[in-house]
Amino acid sequence: MINNPSESLLVLFFFFFLPMKMVMAQNSTTVPVNVGVILDLDDGVNKMALSCINMSLTDFYTIHGGQYKTRLLLTIRNSKQDVVVAAAAGLDLVKSIEVKAILGPTTSMQSTFVIDMAAKAQVPIISFTASSPTLSFLGSPYFFRATQDDTTQVKAISAIVKAFGWRTAVPVYVNNEFGRGIVPSLTDALTEIDARVPYRSAISPTATDDEIGEELNNLTAMQTRVFIVHMTPTLGSRLFLIANKLGMMSPGYVWIITDGLANFLSSMNLSVFDSMQGVLGVKPYVPRTKELMSFQNRFKRKFMQDNPDIVNADLNVYGFWAYDATTALAIAVEKAGTINLGCQKPNVSRNSTDLENLGVSLSGPNLLQALSNSSFKGLSGNFSFVNGQLKSSPYQIINVNGDGVRGIGFWTAENGLIRKLNTPINSSTSANSASKSSLAPIMWPGEVNSISKGWQIPTKGKRLRIGVPVRSGFPEFVKVTKDPTTNPSNFEGYCIDVFDTVVSMLPYPLPFDYLPFEISGNKTYDELVDQCYQQKYDAVVGDVTIRLNRSNYVDFTLPYTESGVSMIVPVKDDKNKNAWAFLKPLTGDLWVACFCFFVYTGFVIWVLEHRINEEFRGPPLYQVGTSFWFSFSTMVFAHRERPLSNLSRFVIVIWCFVVLILTQSYTASLASLLTVQKLQPTVTDVKELIKSSAYIGYPQGSFVLGLVKHLGFDESKLLAFDSLEKLNTLFTKGSGNGGIVAAFAIVPYSKLFLSKHCSKYTTVEPTFKTDGFGFAFPRGSPLVSDVSRAILGVTEGGTMKNIEEKWFGKEGSCPDTGTSISSNSLGIESFWGLFLITGGVSFLAILIYLIMFIYEQWDVITSPDSRSLRQRAVALFWNFYNRDSSSYPMIRKQVNGQQVQLTKPSPSAQSV
User: Fold this and answer.
1) What is the DSSP letter of 570?
2) Counting Cβ atoms within 10 Å, is residue 20 exposed (0-12), middle (13-18) or buried (19+)?
3) How is the subunit organization of this protein annotated in UniProt (predicted)?
């Protein structure tokens, strides 16, 4: 215990005056650098940011105070949430205070003027809250964004949309620079994944609750149920409260919020938080480090000291960025040095404006370079600038669930959606993956676990407008009549019945109204499809063919009819009553093959019989004639020559079987040609038709006109028909009398026409490939997949057959003339197996005979006498040509004729 007063004074000196002296001595060696701060200090978030800025300077100089010669002196200005006040504050800071840098302003609207002014004065601007992408377009090198650009989160949002297969999404945003800035990037990101933005809901920042409710009612009248909300916390809170009252937070709805709302969920009012149950959101991920947790505890004490009237202090990522941005500025000022901290004044007249009187900071370029190269690990993670923008970080996907916010996954530019950070990615999984399996289970609006399909038929609002092509002809496909009393239009026909049946199979009601679209003159099917593209119709139903050029503007369902374009031509009776009709049953190559095998078979029989059968002996010409006669006579089994060799008999049995089949086939084919009526097409070649310059028909208003022009037909030779009766009339007149010789039509038209005139016309090849009829919807319509699935159910069952019989009649009433015309003559391809068998048997018989002959004549071949090789060959030839008196048939004949020879002549005797 200290009792002496002198001792008390001494202690007071050591504990109070001595540190003060040391601080004063230290301050005398530091250089103050003026830095401006522009914040909306009437807002709790900006008060939080200001406390973080002050804490950053305190922490920084506590750690580096003895090493740094510079000190940041803050001059704070309150922008009072006003753009003009923020601009005036910036001008005053640069002109009067001569600040070397500015932290802020708060909003993107306030930043626009301040950035341009600071660029002129070469004063860096560091904003940790202005996120609008439009600020980047200003091109100012002195603007540093210490927050994430709004465009960096649109990829994460589009990945979520793609993962769940949603085809449409509606942005709901505040109608100011902050809200509008993200819309172009968001639309582009959704377009890249084939998702459509059918509507943009812009809500004024000053909108009343009634105006917000009216806009939300407009959204409920649409099919889309996926909404992406990008607005300030104040307006967003009101929006969700009203949406909950209107029943838009029920099952089937999907709400995705950007970081503009997601970063403030912890500070939301309890009633607002309850109305946001099931909402998904994206926000920059900040790792939970020890330094961060320690800072949060210290922040609460600091904030309560600075703002004793605020009970709950909420700290979010903007406070972390404010802390890190201040640290980066302190480091950059030290690196830039204390040289040239002054300001160069311009030479202007007294009547000049304040902007003209602005000086230029001499330290600006050095400070700009130092800020660009700054890099350190801050509270928000790795902090560095890339082209004036804060380096992007992973985004966390969150889900409002119960009393809190639950993280369900992450999105990174390298890996797309992933469940956890710093986990190895399967090599089989492609980069930038967008799979819902990469996210944890989600609780959706209405506290359900089932995933919304992202659209539904509105229970209120307009009914679907269905455009229907109407023309005078082809009533079987679409027919529109008006009631003379009430004057409403009555729609019927094959296409109408198919669509009505398909709609009845959908798992939900689909209210709609048919609207007629007249096809005449310049109004074509392409223009009808274009009306759907412009969303004047919600769908098109009728005889509309699926085409590539049309699919670039609308989405088609699966086809429900046959596909293709065929050529219709008249037929003529061809009974083949000319003098050479008997040759037509067989093709030319078959006739040649038959003749060759007749000759070949006759030659084989002669080889096998001429040495033992007197019927095949005689002069050479007689032997040739006998052989051929024997071969040809097998066609009628009238040959009188009796074969004696067993090999010959085997060959003849096979040959007779072949001849039997050939003759029977020839007889049947000839009878068909001469007795059955053959309707042959008058035209079979498209190229010849083009050269003939004859008149050709095509359906009026159809894409077929472009097809035939592309084939090379002269447009002046093309005649349009608008009905089947008109087509028949044009054929009847003929090309020389204002008619046509052929017509091109899609297959459904062709089949309908031929079913009524099957005896007069037919179709010929080629058939030009196209898709069939399909129902058209605007691009990205969610109805396409469900309607296509229902079409499969109709076409695979018996319902489609009943509809076709109702409008086109039963099949079988006419022969199927829709097939291509082919030749009725028999070709060699039908008989090559028979020729192979008989040829093989004949060759085998000759081979056996020659082996036996050589064996018998072996003595002649190997005779030791003095004859030459040539003499032996001649002797062998004559032995082959002459009779074989030693054979059984020759001996038997000699016995019957009493010319008995008991011994076999020697080879030498036979050769004489």
Assistant:
1) E
2) exposed
3) May form heteromers.
CA distance 648 to 887: 15
pLDDT at 7 over 70: no
Whether residue 418 contacts residue 297, with contact meaning beta carbons closer than 8 Å, is answered with: no
As a whole number of angstroms, the distance between CA 185 and CA 156 comes to 12
Q: Which amino acid is at 850?
A: L
Q: Which residues contact 884 (CB under 8 A, 6 or more apart)?
A: 611, 612, 890
Q: Is-contact 340 367, C-beta < 8 A?
A: no
SS3 at position 815: coil
- Could you read off the pLDDT of 751-760 as tens digits, one per residue? 888 888 777 8
- What letter would DSSP give residue 722? S
State the residue for tokens 């071949």. Answer: 861
**Tens-place pLDDT, residues 377-435:** 999 999 999 999 998 889 999 999 988 899 999 999 888 999 998 765 554 444 566 78
Question: In the structure encoding, which two tokens stand for residue 342, read together?
Answer: 């002054």
Please state, as a whole number, how many other Cβ atoms lie within 10 Å of the Cβ of residue 172.
26
CB atoms within 10 A of CB 117: 21
Question: What is each CA distance from 22 to 13, 27, 223, 449, in whole angstroms?
Answer: 12, 9, 73, 65
CA dihedral 718, 722, 724, 725 (to 10 degrees): -90
Taking residues 238-267, report their average pLDDT: 94
- Helical packing angle, 364-372 and 317-336, nearest 10°: 130
Nearest CA among 106, 260, 301 for reference residue 171: 260
Q: How many whole angstroms separate alpha carbon 758 and alpha carbon 728?
A: 12
Cα 1 vs. chain centroid, distance in angstroms? Answer: 88
Closest CA to 314 of 324, 304, 323, 322: 304
Q: Which helix (H) or strand (E) holds 644?
A: none
Between the CA of residue 352 and those of 94, 150, 169, 362, what are the distances in Å? 17, 39, 52, 22
Distance between CA atoms of residues 295 and 603, nearest Å: 113
Distances (CA, A) of 133 to 143, 152, 337, 395, 726: 13, 9, 32, 18, 62
| Residue carrying structure tokens 């910036």 | 90
User: What single-letter amino acid sits at 861?
Assistant: I
Q: 91 to each of 131, 142, 611, how far by Cα in Å?
A: 22, 15, 131
The SS3 call for residue 342 is: coil
Q: Which residues contact 287 (CB under 8 A, 6 or more apart)?
A: 381
Cα–Cα distances (Å) from 327 to 64, 137, 263, 891, in that order, read 11, 26, 22, 131
Q: How many helices (H) does the chain have, and how many strands (E)?
A: 32, 31
- List the one residue out of 390, 369, 392 whose CA is nearest residue 325: 390
